[in-house]
Amino acid sequence: MDDLVQNWRAVDDYLVDTLVDDDDTLRQARAASHAAGLPPIEVAPNQGAFLALLVRLVSGRRVLEVGTLGGYSTIWLGRAVGPTGRVVTLEVDPHHAEVARGNLERAGLGAVAQVVLGPAVDSLDALIAAQPEPFDLVFIDADKQNNARYLAAALRLTRPGSAIVIDNVVRRGAVVDPDSADPDVQGTRAVLDLVGAEPRLTATALQTVGSKGWDGFVLALVRA
Ligand code: SAH
Ligand code: DHB
Ligand code: MG
């Protein structure tokens, strides 16, 4: 397994070097987050680039992110919506939110990305009550126990043609254990059941390997 992980990492490094513009701003954001003690659980550069491509594929102008951390994925999303677009990103940890605001400011995205501090369930309730324009893409990447609630909120905040991405649904294969005592696994299994049963969504999930290990994500399209 260790050999495999080394290979995955080497291939990711090669792919990122070859295809992905992991520029100084992105590198600095990662470095600042790690220096501030944040866990290194941001998306890999090629995953960030993938999210940005998805935003462009749905011609996304408005993106909602659940789980900001240091704003690394937010930078990818913020660049993809363009200077007149908007990213609303929800974070419960004040330290994470502060680090993210600094990183977003340095990335020139202070006016594009809004970090909303508080439990995402509450922030989503407030957003729904405010009846904003629909979001074109929702990236769900926070506490996995609440993923079912985040999906329900995402369905109320999107439109036909919007995309919903749910991160970390494989977790080294742990997801296949129905008796898992890990609440993250149970949260993931619950949201996968909901996605599968939801007539408003057409969805799939893909496993990923790379610099962040073995994981995967759901991609869902809100149906017309
Ligand atoms: N999207 C980020 C990584 C997010 S890590 C990136 O790829 O760069 C998950 C984040 O979700 C952490 O910062 C954590 O503090 C936050 N989080 C955990 N529980 C939360 C909750 N209930 N509400 C909002 N954010 C939460
Ligand atoms: C964890 C959370 C994430 O969002 C992620 O991408 C990787 C790991 C975690 O909680 O360990
Ligand atoms: Mg994640």
Automatic annotation (TrEMBL):
One of its GO terms (biological process) is methylation. The keyword Lipid biosynthesis does not apply. Coiled coil: none annotated. One of its GO terms (molecular function) is S-adenosylmethionine-dependent methyltransferase activity. Keywords: Methyltransferase, S-adenosyl-L-methionine, Transferase. CDD domains: AdoMet_MTases (cd02440). Gene3D superfamilies: Vaccinia Virus protein VP39. Transmembrane segments: none annotated. PANTHER family: CAFFEOYL-COA O-METHYLTRANSFERASE 3-RELATED, O-METHYLTRANSFERASE-RELATED. This is Putative O-methyltransferase. It comes from Frankia torreyi.
